[in-house]
UniProtKB/TrEMBL annotation:
Belongs to the UPF0047 family. InterPro entries: UPF0047_YjbQ-like, YjbQ-like_sf. It comes from the Bacteria. Pfam families: YjbQ. This is Secondary thiamine-phosphate synthase enzyme.
Length: 140
């Protein structure tokens, strides 16, 4: 089976936000999959996706601190038409990545106990974000 679902996430402020529940709520076919893969793709160039620690909220703060250290806004960027946070957001999105591929088993994502799906919002004032969820697998 193959399914395709468009997920519209609400606008989030700059930072790292757990969106696992948003993704799970939007995918109707997950529980019918015995074994398969969920591919998530973000349709934006200034935000990204990652999978990481879902329990301690200080992880989200540290992610933002580390990314701002790696990609400072103070560099002499040439692409500045959309504001000083735009080009650094593009670089961060390229470093973090635009997709995740996650295993499905018996109708559930096979994530580790402390793993969650993050929207990494790299802009100061971004709008809602769009994800494409594609499932490929064998049904029950």
């Amino acid at each position: 089976m193959w399914t395709h679902t468009e997920i519209r996430l609400p606008a989030f402020p700059r930072g790292f936000h757990l969106v696992t529940r948003h993704v799970l709520a939007a995918i109707d076919d997950l529980e019918t999959v015995e074994v398969g893969l969920l591919h998530l793709f973000i349709q934006h160039t200034s935000a990204s996706l990652t999978l990481n620690e879902n329990a301690d909220p200080t992880v989200r703060v540290d992610f933002e601190t580390a990314m701002n250290h790696l990609v400072p806004e103070s560099l002499p960027y040439e692409h500045t038409l959309e504001g000083p946070d735009d080009m650094p957001a593009h670089v961060k999105a390229s470093l973090m990545g635009n997709s995740l591929t996650l295993p499905i088993y018996r109708g559930r994502l096979s994530l580790g106990i402390w793993q969650g799906i993050y929207l990494c919002e790299h802009r100061d004032h971004a709008g809602s974000r769009s994800l494409i969820a594609t499932i490929h697998g064998e049904t029950k």
